[in-house]
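FW: tagging you since you asked about this chain on Friday. Here's the raw sequence from the shared folder, copied in full. Didn't touch anything.
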Amino acid sequence: MRAPEVNLSELSLRPRRVVERLEAAPSRSVRIRRREKDKPDLLLVTAERAEQAVAGFSATVTLLVELMRRSAETAALAAEALPAAFPWARYLSTEELHAFAGELVETLERAESLGSPVPFATLVAKWKQTAEAHADPELAAILRRNDHSGQTSGRLS
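HL: got it, structure written out here
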C-alpha cells in the first residue's frame, strides 16, 4: 500500500489539503517529497497508525524471541527461513545463517526496547556485506586464505 505523495511546498502552502489526503489514504500516511538530493523524503502519518505499527512490531519481536528461546527447532527453522526475507542470505553458510538468526533476534529485541530500527539495519547491512563477499569468488578466496581452517571466517565487520 503506497502512500500518496506531495511536494514539501504543498504541505506548507496547502496544509489542509495534505491532511485531507492523509485521512483519505488507506495507509493513513502521505509521503512528503523533498527536492534536495541529499535529504530523504519525509513521511506524515497519523499518530494512531504510528502507534499501531509500533505495537505490531513489538508483539512480533516478543513472539519471535520467545519462540526461539524455547525451541532449538524453531531457531533452526528461523535460520532456514532467512533467505525468504533476505535472498542474499543464500550466499551464507549454514553456520553463518544460524549465527545471523541468533544475532538478528537479539538485535531486534534490543532495537525494539530502544524504539530505534538503527541497530537492526546496521546488523543486516553487515551480514549483507558478508554475503556479497561470499558471492564474489575472489573475495571468498581471500576469506578462506585468511582463515587457516579453510572455512570462511564469518561476518565481515
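FW: Helices lie at 8-13, 15-24, 47-70, 72-85, 94-114, 118-135, 137-146.
HL: agreed, and Residues 5-45 form one domain.
FW: great, closing this out.
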